[in-house]
């Protein structure tokens, strides 16, 4: 099920991207980001370390895992943008979602449902 979820995440993100030349550039455009770059990077690293860190430690696997973590952060950002609340509460919602994902291992689909 987990591999199906990852595959589905990657397929959805590839369909959503109109320009496939920038696959390593998964984050949302600068204007729509709620979190500052340092916070977003640290949360992305948390997701990567917990869910996407490859067992073989090859460069190709690391790139794929980091891409998946960045894509997940982009989805969380898009989800938070749709919430009807202040920007500060949206930022808190993103941080809480990442912590639930890392600490409680909740599925992304459960969080952004």
TrEMBL record:
<protein>
    <submittedName>
        <fullName>Uncharacterized protein</fullName>
    </submittedName>
</protein>
